[in-house]
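User: Can you help me understand a structure? I only have the sequence.
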Amino acid sequence: MKFKTRIVAAAALAASLSGFSHAATELVIATVNNGHMIEMAKLSKNFEQANPDIKLKWVTLEEGVLRQRVTTDIATKGGQFDVMTIGMYETPIWGKKGWLKELKGDASYDADDILPAMRNGLSVDGKMYAAPFYGESSMLMYRKDLADKAGVTFAERPTWEQVRDAASKMHDPKNGVYGICLRGKPGWGDNMAFLSTMVNSFGGQWFDMSWKPQLESKPWKDAVTFYVDLLGKYGPPGSSANSFNEILALYNEGKCGMWIDATIAASFITDPKQSKVADKVAFAQGPYSVTQKGANWLWAWALAIPAGTKNADAAQKFVSWATSKDYINLVAKTNGWARVPTGTRKSTYANPEFQKAAVFAAAEKAAIDSANPNDSTLPKSPYVGVQFAAIPEFQAIGIAVGQQMSAALAGKVSVDDALKASQVAADREMKKAKYYK
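Assistant: Let's start by predicting it. Here is the structure, written out as tokens:
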């Protein structure tokens, strides 16, 4: 309380000295329209009560629109927003360009409590440019009852060969159960988020140290061939159109033996209000082939302050509040520990009440801790990121490659032709951006 009192007093004094003691600072916050962020907006009245000199204005947008709006605003120095919700893809790029304010919380913020994987993924040269609001990795989620019936046991981190063997034994399409469900819908954050981790584990990378695309390399061919064959034999029909939400619906109906996807899914498939198999779910780490490096992704929705804001101090106060231990405790007190934003702080996972409410907690934390965006490939790579490369050109490349991979999965093109077309598209983008001639 002393910390908050000191902030309020300092802000009031500053306002008084400027002759506008009655005028509140308005912070405009751009965020995404998902449940955790909508809850933050509801609970922000607590922040305004503690900071009567600051008023919050919310701009809540669908994910694609949010990315477009904040990217345009920050690149053109538009100054529409004081706080932006961005991810691990944008943060290193924008931080390096000087487009974001460095975040410096005081001792009470306890930045050392932030999970190292999250802190590193939102930092450039040791300086943090966005604070994680919630984070995730990916992991294997499976039907324990079906595995037991098939005589299948999983290591803490199984191999892809073991997963394929388990899929073949659990696959029972006559009774509406498919051995494995995986993303196939095209997009750099859709099928390519999953496929990048698979390629990493097969020993591949997006670019070599000369920034040359590696899409026709042996690891890419091996991984994509394995993926297409696996889903062709043991996946649900129409996998090339399935993303997170489609597979979540299938899993909750009891139609998937296994699913490898975002750790956030665990909170839905273990919820008896949503899932018919809530009490039959177990977890393992993301599978690997030749290396465990980069076998599971890393992502955070995070709050950042654009360099051009005129309200930097007030923005820092808000970001510190919304990503603090106190905020997590506020959500727990208001909605229960099963509803808190996960994937950000060590103290959350150390809390016995959270551990009791979230049966997936240990597996989720292990996945997040193992993901290293600065060292996610077996051969050395020039980029930061596990399931993406944090360069501006990656969005276009990831979208183009995602379309080819989806077409290969649907049987419209061969794996070799899909990878050849992907290599051509990636090479064109990198030459255009003058990474090489």
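Now, to help you interpret it: Residues 2-129+299-357 form a domain with the D-Maltodextrin-Binding Protein; domain 2 fold (CATH 3.40.190.10). The longest helix spans residues 415-432. Let me know which part you'd like to focus on.
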